[in-house]
């Protein structure tokens, strides 16, 4: 709050001995560790490209109704007229035309592009919801175990070990149909939102352990740091300790864990749908599309090509971005 | 600094044992601090000195109640605070603050300096007249930092500057007693002098009492009115600075002082070399704890624990059966 701009400049000159890069000193505003990490991220070309790709995918997923309206084709519309007598799409590359950008499904004759756009939304929604849920559970349990310690720590560690000992695939295979049967009858159609909800719940059930362990370790390391003791010596309560002193210092690893968990859930959802316990054909999803396309691998390779390449690009971009994020947040970590 | 003034802080029989567990069974205890008695008068500086592991830091942390004492009592301004709960501590914590050793670990890297210094005000719900920001800037100025650096982060400061931030934070609540836990050990020698002088100025201007923990005898001598020498969780000698430095009575104090590399007064012949290691605080020696390394030890030292008493009726208390007498330079 200097009265004249000249005064600030004069002070700045005293403070910084002509370090070319230090011109920002004029305002006497420091750069937080978060701002420094963001600056490092902006300098990283891999992060920029993968980040741009992710933003594109997320925008597409958010704009599904708009895209559908502009494209003029729904995900359940069938174009039997464009299939030949054997149910194969007419034309080249799986029936790619100006109206059907990525061609048509053999057999049912549905539009692949709009189904993929819908599938992208399903995948991203499930993956993000599961990642947020696991992060919340993991951070809560990890913080409690790490900060409070004692018997609570022991109990939470036990639960973690127990969860890690459970075989994910077998339990998913056993649980999905059973839960569906419990709520809906043998002949009833299971609605899509229910399947999605169960998938998210299963991912959350199994996924929180790594975050919990990570956070617990970080909190234990921080708990003994002197700045935390300084807050305690000043009489800070539990809320201040957790939210002002401890958690701001573990956001970085949590963020990295989150960004690496999302692609994992995308592939897991696809895998579960592929083996038939995830989503059904009602809901467009990458897993179901790839599963169906395998029958036509010889006759219509374009069918597997589009969803395959998209899920690959999506997961690859997420992983690259997660790695770049880790490098930016912790430049000292070895590559 | 007369002896008649009511002590601000009074410590009696202060003890901290850390239980050692083997699985679930208790397997004994590390007797980190084992029965300390000392007083600190208002505006006075008491130096706690001793080698690593003698319980200095544990004592400091018990004084600000970061650790719960196993036994003994701490009386601050006439109030027994040994068992005070968190609510009772609120008011007390304003009067009792701590400065930490490592300026790189004692500041939250995610907070600006302004937030760090304002933290004690914030957690105690205090809004000083003129606002928090003004108060923080006053404090920064008080410790010799540019108040315009309010918005900077710790990583943008040097070690000495960071330590000044830590001091500003300790002073935010206008304490009456500050526990300084090796506040300059992690700093360069040139910076040490600056920080020590800052602390001395602050003490004079704000009439602060200090419990100054250090292992550097020169720093203690420069800064403290009285000195307590600790060995293995006990005070072996306590007294006015000049008495301790000129006429140390306890053999351990003599050995410590002789180890100061001060060629002007002591030749190599004056160095008292202690043999052996410090015994484990898990199972300290019987009687006098220093007897295993003391060159004057007799059978009596092994059986009878020496009391901390005065030898000449003065302020200098020594716990030894065979105290030395006479000035330091002459002996040995």
Instruction: Spell the H/E element sequence of chain B.
Output: EEEHEEHEHHHEHEHEEHHHEE
Radius of gyration of chain B: 21 Å
The secondary structure category of chain B is alpha/beta
The number of helical runs of chain A is 13
- In CATH terms, the superfamily of the largest domain in chain A is MetI-like
Order of strands in the sheet with most strands of chain B? 6-7-8-3-9-10-12-11
Total strand segments of chain B = 12
Question: How many domain regions of chain B?
Answer: 1
Describe this protein with a few key phrases.
heterodimer, A: 335 residues, mainly alpha, MetI-like fold, 2 domains, disordered N terminus, B: 332 residues, alpha/beta, Rossmann fold, 8-stranded mixed β-sheet, 4-stranded antiparallel β-sheet, 12 strands
What's the arrangement of secondary structure elements?
The complex is a heterodimer of chains A (335) and B (332).
Chain A: H1 5-15, H2 33-43, H3 45-62, H4 64-71, H5 112-148, H6 150-165, H7 168-183, H8 192-223, H9 226-233, H10 238-246, H11 251-274, H12 286-293, H13 301-329
Helix pairs in contact in A: 2-13, 3-5, 3-13, 4-5, 5-6, 5-8, 5-11, 5-13, 6-8, 7-8, 8-11, 9-10, 11-12, 11-13, 12-13
Chain B: E1 9-22, E2 25-40, E3 45-49, H1 56-63, E4 71-76, E5 79-80, H2 86-95, E6 96-99, H3 113-123, H4 132-142, H5 159-171, E7 177-181, H6 189-206, E8 209-214, H7 217-223, E9 226-231, E10 234-240, H8 241-246, H9 251-258, H10 299-303, E11 309-310, E12 317-318
Parallel strand pairs in B: 3-8, 3-9, 6-7, 7-8
Antiparallel strand pairs in B: 1-2, 1-4, 4-5, 9-10, 10-12, 11-12
Helix pairs in contact in B: 3-4, 3-5, 4-5, 5-6
């Amino acid at each position: 709050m200097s009265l004249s701009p000249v005064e600030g400049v004069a002070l700045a000159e005293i403070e910084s001995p002509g370090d070319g890069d230090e011109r920002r000193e004029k305002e006497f505003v420091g750069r937080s560790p978060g701002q420094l990490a963001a600056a490092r991220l902006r300098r990283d070309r891999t992060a920029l490209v993968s980040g741009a790709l992710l933003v594109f995918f997320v925008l597409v997923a958010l704009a599904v109704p708009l895209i559908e309206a502009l494209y003029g084709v729904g995900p359940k519309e069938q174009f039997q007229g464009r299939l030949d007598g054997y149910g194969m799409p007419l034309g080249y590359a799986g029936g790619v035309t100006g109206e059907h950008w990525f061609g048509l499904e053999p057999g049912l004759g549905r539009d692949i592009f709009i189904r993929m756009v819908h599938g992208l939304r399903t995948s991203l929604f499930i993956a993000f919801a599961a990642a947020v849920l696991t992060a919340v559970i993991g951070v809560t349990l990890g913080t409690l175990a790490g900060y409070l310690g004692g018997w609570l720590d022991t109990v939470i560690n036990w639960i973690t070990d127990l969860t890690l000992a459970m075989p994910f695939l077998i339990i998913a295979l056993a649980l999905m149909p059973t839960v569906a049967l419990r709520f809906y009858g043998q002949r009833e159609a299971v609605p899509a939102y229910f399947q999605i909800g169960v998938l998210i719940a299963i991912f959350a059930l199994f996924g929180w352990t790594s975050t919990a362990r990570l956070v617990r370790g970080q909190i234990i390391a921080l708990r003994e740091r002197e700045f935390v003791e300084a807050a305690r010596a000043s009489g800070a309560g539990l809320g201040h300790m957790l939210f002002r002193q401890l958690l701001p210092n573990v956001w970085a690893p949590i963020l990295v864990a989150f960004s690496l968990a999302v692609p994992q859930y995308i592939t897991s959802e696809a895998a579960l749908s592929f083996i038939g316990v995830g989503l059904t054909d009602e809901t467009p999803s990458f897993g179901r599309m790839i599963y169906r396309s395998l029958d036509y691998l010889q006759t219509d390779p374009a069918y597997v090509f589009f969803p395959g390449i998209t899920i690959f690009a999506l997961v690859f971009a997420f992983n690259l971005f997660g790695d770049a994020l880790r490098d930016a947040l912790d430049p000292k970590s070895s590559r | 600094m007369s002896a008649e003034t009511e002590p601000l802080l009074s410590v009696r029989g202060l003890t901290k044992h850390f239980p050692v567990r083997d699985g679930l069974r208790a397997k004994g205890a590390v007797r980190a601090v084992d029965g300390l008695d000392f007083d600190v008068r208002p505006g006075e500086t008491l130096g706690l000195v001793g080698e690593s592991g003698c319980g200095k830091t544990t004592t400091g942390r018990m004084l600000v109640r970061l650790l719960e004492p196993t036994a003994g009592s701490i009386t601050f301004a006439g109030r027994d605070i040994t068992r005070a709960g968190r609510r009772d501590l609120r008011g007390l914590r304003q009067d009792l603050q701590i400065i930490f050793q490592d300026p790189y670990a004692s500041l939250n890297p995610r907070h600006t300096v302004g937030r760090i210094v304002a933290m004690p005000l914030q957690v105690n719900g205090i809004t000083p007249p003129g606002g928090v920001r003004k108060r923080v800037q006053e404090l920064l100025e008080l410790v010799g930092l540019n108040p315009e650096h309010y918005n900077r982060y710790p990583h943008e400061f040097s070690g000495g500057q960071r330590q000044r931030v830590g001091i500003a934070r300790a002073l935010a609540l206008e304490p009456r007693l500050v526990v300084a836990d090796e506040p300059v050990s992690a700093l360069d020698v040139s910076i040490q002098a600056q920080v020590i002088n800052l602390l001395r100025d602050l003490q004079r201007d704000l009439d602060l009492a200090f419990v100054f923990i250090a292992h550097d005898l020169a720093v203690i001598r420069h800064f403290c009115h009285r000195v307590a020498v600790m060995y293995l969780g006990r005070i072996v000698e306590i007294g006015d600075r000049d008495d301790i430095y000129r006429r140390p009575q306890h053999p351990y104090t003599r050995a410590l002082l002789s180890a100061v590399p001060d060629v002007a007064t002591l030749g190599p012949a004056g160095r008292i070399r202690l043999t052996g290691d410090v015994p484990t605080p898990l199972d300290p020696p019987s009687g006098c704890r220093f007897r295993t390394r003391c060159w004057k030890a007799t059978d009596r030292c092994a059986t009878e624990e020496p009391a901390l008493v005065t030898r000449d009726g003065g302020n200098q208390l020594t716990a030894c059966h065979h105290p030395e007498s006479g000035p330091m330079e002459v002996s040995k």
